[in-house]
């Protein structure tokens, strides 16, 4: 078999079957994985969450993960934010002619391991091969189905004055990691992406209380963009305390040198949570026991004042309006 992907691998003939057998069936095998035109699945009675996401990250490999791990985490986390236990995923690959087969296997292996950790099955997929230069290496689209847990209803429209604002860990690491991998700044910083599947974290929170109003993963645009989205959807104000926002020291250092704000750097393993103040401490205490959420913290509160705006209280007690995100945010993640 060729050691790079060729156009013949996308033609639907023998080479396509070889590619699917060698790479995808080898790593994604489970009782529901289908060779037919669609997977037929059993789903318990109740509400379903359904989402899809595309991944074109460059570079495709980075400290802490690769595009395969990211494609599973991104969709699993979107389902989890709706209070839905992830059940099934499909994945579609667009692969550039000449892409190394061993790198494709590494991506598939990473996807399989992350799906297993998240407790989700990859049950269907599609493979296309594009000509040289038509795509940058490999693009992946994943679609997911999850079962919404009973009595759980989360939405960006449900934030209420008096809610505590919680983050599930230190922020900005994924964006900082990609920036350092992509650009030659001559900065030597030990920064690793926070990319992680987060259904376990959501399940932990729901074991404390199901009275959680908003859960959102802070991907493109980071925590700051998410907060502005929620402030707008719910027409509330948000007040943050800068000293309570967890940021890894190495990320602070890089941001200081490059003039970047960690609140606007992407995360791939961090949740932003809005919950009634009386539950906030218990939620944070539970999260801090988790694998990916040891640095969870309450960073602010929801107010009636200045609806649609986010205000930051600085370490010296001054208040400043957090800039609303506009235009191209750096680094461009996808």
Automatic annotation (TrEMBL):
Entries under CDD domains matching the protein: HypE
Domain PurM-like N-terminal: 36-148
Family annotation (Gene3D superfamilies): PurM-like C-terminal domain (3.90.650.10), PurM-like, N-terminal domain (3.30.1330.10)
SUPFAM superfamilies found in the cross-reference section: PurM C-terminal domain-like, PurM N-terminal domain-like
One BP term from GO: protein maturation
Lineage: superkingdom: Bacteria
Domain (PurM-like C-terminal): residue spans on this chain: 160-307
Family the UniProt entry places it in: Belongs to the HypE family.
The name this protein goes by in its record: Hydrogenase expression/formation protein HypE
Species of the source: Candidatus Anaerobutyricum stercoripullorum
Gene: hypE
């Amino acid at each position: 078999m060729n050691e790079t992907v060729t156009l013949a691998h996308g033609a639907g003939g023998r080479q396509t079957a070889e590619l699917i057998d060698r790479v995808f069936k080898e790593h994604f095998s489970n009782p529901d994985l289908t060779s037919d035109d669609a997977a037929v699945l059993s789903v318990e009675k109740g509400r379903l969450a359904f989402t899809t996401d595309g991944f074109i990250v460059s570079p495709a490999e980075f400290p802490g993960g690769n595009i395969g791990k990211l494609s599973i985490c991104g969709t699993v986390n979107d389902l989890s934010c709706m209070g839905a236990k992830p059940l099934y995923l499909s994945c579609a690959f667009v692969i550039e002619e000449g892409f190394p087969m061993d790198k494709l296997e590494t991506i598939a292996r990473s996807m399989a391991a992350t799906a297993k950790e998240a407790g989700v099955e990859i049950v269907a997929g599609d493979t296309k091969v594009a000509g040289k230069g038509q795509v940058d290496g490999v693009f992946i689209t994943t679609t997911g189905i999850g079962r919404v847990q009973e009595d759980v209803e989360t939405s960006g429209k449900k934030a209420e004055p008096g809610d505590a604002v919680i983050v599930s860990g230190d922020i900005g690491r994924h964006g900082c990691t990609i920036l350092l991998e992509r650009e030659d700044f001559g900065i030597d910083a030990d920064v690793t992406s926070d990319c992680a599947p987060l259904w376990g974290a959501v399940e932990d929170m729901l074991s404390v209380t199901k009275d959680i109003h908003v859960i959102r993963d802070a991907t493109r645009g980071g925590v700051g963009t998410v907060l502005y989205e929620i402030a707008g959807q719910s027409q509330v104000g948000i007040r943050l305390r800068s000293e309570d926002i967890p940021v890894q020291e190495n990320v602070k250092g890089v941001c200081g040198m490059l003039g970047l704000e960690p609140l606007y750097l992407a995360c791939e393993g961090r949740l932003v949570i809005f919950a009634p103040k009386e539950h906030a401490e218990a939620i944070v205490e539970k999260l801090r026991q988790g694998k990916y959420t040891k640095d969870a913290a309450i960073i602010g509160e929801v107010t009636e004042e200045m609806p649609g705006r986010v205000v930051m209280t600085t370490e010296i007690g001054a208040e400043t309006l957090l800039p609303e995100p506009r235009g191209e945010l750096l680094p461009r993640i996808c």
